[in-house]
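pinning this so it doesn't scroll away 📌
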Amino acid sequence: MPVTEVTRRKRRSPEEIRDRVIEAAGEEFERSGYRGATTAAIARRAEVTEAQIFRYFDSKADLFRTAIFEPLNRHFADFHARHRDDSFMPFRESAREYITELQDFISEHAGMLRSLVVAQAYAKDPTESGSALDGLNDYFAQGAAMTRRRMSEKPRVPPELMVRVSFAAVLGCVLFEDWMFPPGMADRQAIRDATIDFVIDGINANNEANGK
């Protein structure tokens, strides 16, 4: 049986091993947080060795960045592909759809994202848990490019800044919902709708300045 297991593992492609490690890391970071998760536990969950993990990732911080931000960048790339030719769609409609998907994504990965916030806040070395900005650079760049395509003139607020402010607003309202909104103030859908309207109206300041 051990021989069969070893043989089965050897047949995995490098891509399969990497994907298994990322999936296992996401589950472990979600469950234990950045500091509590260990590469040994991730290796057991992925059914690989720790040595195999470090063939693909330079450090635990590198793996953490990938487990959090690779799915986010993949999510945005998929959204971008699906909406590449929808410039005819009214701005408010397309923005609402995008922000709703972002809210869903953040809710799904709330545990890992909270872990990132805490790890970054208390790390002696700011790079110890990985740089959030490094992980989000692709995401922000694509978002700014999508925003810029809808504007024919120079925007009042640079798209590179607007996309970060918008993301921060959505991130904060989702991650800290229980803290920011006392029971009885509003239900979850009302909070989500208010967040969407707030972000859209902020972004729309640029569109209105360009007659859109």
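📌 and the second one:
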Amino acid sequence: MKKERIVFLDYLRVFAIIAVIILHVVANDWYGLKVREFNWNVLNVYDSIR
């Protein structure tokens, strides 16, 4: 008996992998910026999406 793949779950897995990569890249620079600068706010939005 062979189980069929659920394509939606494959897409969800790809999205989760990309989200984790973006989170790690953002967190690398986020702590080095001054609070309330434009770049800090942009990185904060990306970090908040997770």
